Amino acid sequence: MKQLLIIRHAKSSWAVQGQNDFDRPLNERGQRDAPVMAQRLLDKHVAIDAFISSTANRALTTAYYFAETYQIPKKSIMQFRELYHASASVFYNVISKLDDKINAAAVFSHNPGITEFVNLLTATQVDDMPTCAVFAVKADISQWKEFKSAKKIYWFFDYPKL
Fold first, then answer.
1. Which of 22, 37, 73, 77 is the most buried (most CB within 10 A)?
2. Domain containing residue 117: CATH number
3. Is the model's pTM score more than 0.90?
4. Domain that holds residue 135
5. 112: cis peptide before it, omega within 30°?
């Protein structure tokens, strides 16, 4: 059984006019929400073996907060530029290449692609993945390359204001 957590980056800052979208940092709320959400997962005894993130500043910083809470070195976060505004096919491609020794993976990315992707996974639908939301599924597979075609089971959905 493999477990996948899809996590939208925490709330980002628009304070610097004209700043490149890719480089936007987290705002105060984002810096507060990310460790809180990571701690909620720990409190639920949700294991995470691998952290995978878009290389955009706000997604990677969110992943850093989760890694810190899980006491995982930041350098172990797998980074994929293609997860920045990724389509479903990009998510599936990245997931399919994960090491099969990984049983639980967390992927950090962006809207609108992240909402579109989670809505393909199970019958449970979300209108919009809020910032720092976690959508989790399980799949009865032994290899990540089987994930796309496997039946996924909705596990939980959580976000800061819930």
1. 37
2. 3.40.50.1240
3. yes
4. 2-12+21-158
5. yes
Per-residue pLDDT 10s for the chain (162 aa) are 999 999 999 999 988 888 899 999 999 999 999 999 999 999 999 999 999 999 999 999 999 999 999 999 999 999 999 999 999 999 999 999 999 999 999 999 999 999 999 999 999 999 999 999 999 999 999 999 999 999 999 999 999 999
80: left (phi over 0), alpha (psi -120 to 50) or beta: beta
∠ CA 160-71-35 to the nearest 5 degrees? 15
Domain count, the chain: 1
146 secondary structure, DSSP code: G
**What is the full DSSP assignment across 89-104?**
HHHHHHHHTS-TT--E
